[in-house]
Amino acid sequence: MKLAEKIKQLRNQKGFSQDDLAQQSGLSLRTIQRIEQDETIPRGHTLKQIASALAVEVDTFTLNADKEEDGNANVFNLLALSFIIFPLLGLLLPLLIFIVKKDRTAYEDETAKRVVNFQGTWSLLVFLLYSCATVFKLLHMGYFPYLLYCIGLLYIGNLIFILINIVRTTQFKTVFYQPAIAFFKL
């Protein structure tokens, strides 16, 4: 069950209208409406206020409360493995699913952003190294083999990061992809 649905269900169980919940929580009616329509995800203070008004623990709303729904977060990690076939696929496939799939949980959303940020950074590095290797080869400079070793290390590093994060995702831990340029803000 999504967070918005859970809040709405608890509100209805308590017999509150949206206006009642807004007054009890000290939030605006429009904020409650946006949350229940899944237009925004409540965090921090807002989540505490809603939990307090509904007389439930904040843990009721945490990301790991409905673990069975967050199984799709691993899809982004698995799609990133496509870099083995073609370097840009590791970026494009997770990005495509991120853009197309709108009904993501907050955990899936964060995982997808971290994967896309890391794969974008990795693709940029690989492109730069391939470009340098090509230029060095054309100019008959002696660094060509070293650049190929660096590219190989980047591939191995990417594979290791993805495999570690597949395990972390199955344990519902936050994925760790570093270094990464923040193309998408977390």
Automatic annotation (TrEMBL):
Entry's InterPro entries? Cro/C1-type_HTH, Lambda_DNA-bd_dom_sf, MamF_MmsF, TransReg_Diox_bact_type
Membrane topology per the record? Multi-pass membrane protein
Source taxon at top rank: Bacteria
Q: Where in the cell is it found?
A: Membrane
Pfam families reported for this sequence: HTH_3, MamF_MmsF
> Which UniProt keywords are present, listed alphabetically?
DNA-binding, Membrane, Transmembrane, Transmembrane helix
Establish whether keyword Repeat is in the entry.
no
Annotated HTH cro/C1-type domain ranges read: 7-61
Q: Which residues cross the membrane?
A: 78-100, 121-140, 146-167
Cellular component, GO, one term: cytosol
Q: Does the keyword Nucleus apply?
A: no
- SUPFAM superfamilies documented for this protein: lambda repressor-like DNA-binding domains
This protein's major location comes to membrane
Against PROSITE patterns, the record matches this protein to: HTH_CROC1
Q: Which GO terms describe its molecular function?
A: DNA binding; DNA-binding transcription factor activity
Protein name as it appears in the record: HTH cro/C1-type domain-containing protein
Name its species: Pedobacter rhizosphaerae
